[in-house]
Each structure stands twice: as C-alpha cells, then as structure tokens.
Amino acid sequence: MPELPEVETVRRGLEESLLGQRISRLITKRADLRFPIPADIQSRTEKKVVISISRKAKFLLITLEDGTIILSHLGMSGRWTIISEDLKSTPGRFAHGGMIGTGEGPHDWVILQFENGTEAVYSDPRRFGFIDVIAPGNEGFHPMLEKLGPDPLPNTLTPDMLNKSLVGRKAPLKASLLNQGIIAGLGNIYVCEALSRARLSPRRRSGTIASERGPTNRIHRLVSSIHDVISEAIDAGGSTLNDYRGVHGEEALGYFPLSFQVYGREGEPCLNEDCSGTVQRYVQSGRSTYSCPTCQR
Ligand SMILES: [Zn+2]
Q1: Where exactly does CATH 1.10.8.50 map onto the chain?
Q2: Which pLDDT belongs to residue 237?
Q3: Which CATH class name applies to 159-291?
Q4: Looking at 67-76, 177-186, 210-219, 250-259, which range is the least confident one?
Q5: What pLDDT was estimated at residue 290?
Q6: Intra-chain end-to-end CA distance of the chain, in Å
Q7: What pLDDT is stored for residue 100 in this prediction?
Q8: Distance (Å) from CA 272 to ligand 1 centroid
Q9: What average pLDDT does the structure give for the chain?
Q10: Higher pLDDT pick, 140 / 251
Q11: Residues 110 and 104 sit within 8 Å (Cβ to Cβ)
Q12: Which of 41, 130, 244, 258 has its Cα between 20 and 30 A from that of 235?
C-alpha cells in the first residue's frame, strides 16, 4: 500500500509534468473504483488548466484554474503514470509493468489527456483507490478530508498539537499515532520507526506522555522522531515493501527500507545507541508491531 512518502513522490512527479497544462479530455473506463466516479467529471474538468498539485495525508489534490479539485486516493494498488509525447513513441514504455499505465492496460481506469500531448493514466488493479471531484471552495467539507488531523511534517505537526490530542487518552500510543484524526497519513511502518527512535513503547497508554501544562520531553522527542522518519522517507522517494512505482514507471525503491531500525527486524539486535536489547514483533489491532522492549518504555 502506498504510504505518505510514496504519495508525496507521486505528487512531485505529477507536479513536474502537469502543472500549467490544460486538460483536453478526461476518459473514464469504468463508472466506479472504490466509490462511483462522478458522472459529470468530464464537464467539470475538461478545458481547464492545472494550477496546483497538493497533498493532504495520502490524498492527492489536483486543483484547476476555477478552483475545482480532482481528488485522488491510491488505495492499495493505485498508481499514476505519465506518458509524454516522446515517451509514447518509445517501445521502452512497456519495459516497466507490462501494459499497466499505458492507457490501454486492463487496469487503466482514468486517463487525463492534456493539450500538450501528455497523458496521466490512473491504474488500479485492486480498485481500492478512488477519484472524486470537489466543487470550488468545498475542500474543507469533503467527508474524506474534513476530519483529518495534521500531516506529520514539521510545518504542520507541532508538539503542542500532539500533546493536546493525547492528554487523557487511554488508547495505546501506537493506536493513537495511527488515528487519522490525530495525525493524518502516518502508516504502520513509520509509527513503529518513530516510536523506536523516541524510545517509547507502542503499548504505553497515550495519555501518560502528555500533560495539560504543555508538551512534555517525551512529546518533543516523539514529534522530532516522526518528523525525521517521514522527512527521510520522502527524501528517499518513499519506502515501499512491494512493487510500488513512481509516476514515470520506474521502481521507486529508495534506500530507506534498508535503514529501518525495527520494522521487519524481529529477533535482531536493537540499533538504538547503548541498547543491547532484541527487536520483538507482536500484533496490535491486527497490524504487526516491531519494537525493542529494553529501551522502548
Ligand atoms: Zn533497544
């Protein structure tokens, strides 16, 4: 499943190719993905120029000149592929992923054609992703966006915010960090990594690290760890444990997976400084947790 850093990689790729371009045609190959695609999507988007491509958690927002937004979520297996005029004439375009992302593949569901000849193709074999259209000015009222907490980045998530969200909360720390209303788009792997760096137990009651008087040292440590983990992953082009690809079809594998401190390292030595503990794996709310019981308290 694409995590936030991968989605940010996709955002940057789309921005590079589509910013300032006018949509000539939008083609849908089926009426629904995870949810129905609005039937009037063509009339609301065609002939309009893309003025920004932003991201909120794992949602991509393609904003058009009149304020209309094409909202895209990649779900489990969604991907955007850019086909430019020169690439189209290159047989090498089939080198990655077979027919996927060519506009003619069996899972290519939405095709955005631009006046300059570029095409952006949305493919999604499992169809857990979706495409929606938001009317100008209605971004804050979209049911998928309105309840999202801040993105886990330095300019959006502050120690004060996290402290306020955790005061009095009884849920385990890991569950709180996965709660989209508290932090939006921080996935399972990154939560495990951030907790390891902050040396906090995933099972600790959330409220025990927060204080009504303001952010504690533990909150500061945790927020710094979250920022670091996500920033490093974005710099590395997204982590990814399966065959996730960037928008240009190339493998988007970064070095970051190799530097996981705890994730996927059950039974191996803890990498935290001055700790001789061993990484353990257990299941919390159906998801794998990796942590070191020696230094994560
Ligand atoms: Zn340790």
Answers
A1: 159-291
A2: 67
A3: mainly alpha
A4: 250-259
A5: 96
A6: 29
A7: 53
A8: 5
A9: 88
A10: 140
A11: no
A12: 130
Overall pTM > 0.85: no
Region class of 49: left (phi > 0), else alpha (psi between -120 and 50), else beta: beta
Residue type for position 205: R
- Position 95 scores a pLDDT of 33
CB 10 within 8 A of CB 2: yes
Q: Measured in angstroms, how far is the CA atom of residue 183 from the centroid of ligand 1? A: 25
Residue type, position 75, single letter: G
The string of DSSP letters for the chain reads ---HHHHHHHHHHHHHHHTTPBEEEEEESSSBSSSBPPTTHHHHHTT-BEEEEEEETTEEEEEETTS-EEEEE-TTT-EEEEE-HHHHT-GGGGTTTTTTTSSSSTTEEEEEEETTS-EEEEE-SS---EEEEE-TT-GGG-TTTTT----SSTTT--HHHHHHHHTT--SBHHHHHH-TTTSSS--HHHHHHHHHHHT--TTSBGGGG--TTS--HHHHHHHHHHHHHHHHHHHTT---SSS-B-TTSSB---SGGGG-SSTT-TTSBP-STT---B-EEEEETTEEEEE-TTT--
CA of residue 262 to ligand 1 center, whole Å: 9
> Contact, 21 vs 49, CB < 8 A?
yes
Q: What is the pLDDT of residue 243?
A: 42
Domain with CATH 3.20.190.10 in the chain: 4-141
- Active site (catalytic) residues: 2-3, 58, 287
**Euclidean distance between CA atoms 215 and 195, whole angstroms:** 17
Two tokens at 163? 């402290």
The confidence score (pLDDT) of residue 2 equals 79
Q: Does domain 4-141 have CATH number 3.20.190.10?
A: yes
Q: How far away, in angstroms, is 273 Cα from ligand 1 center?
A: 8
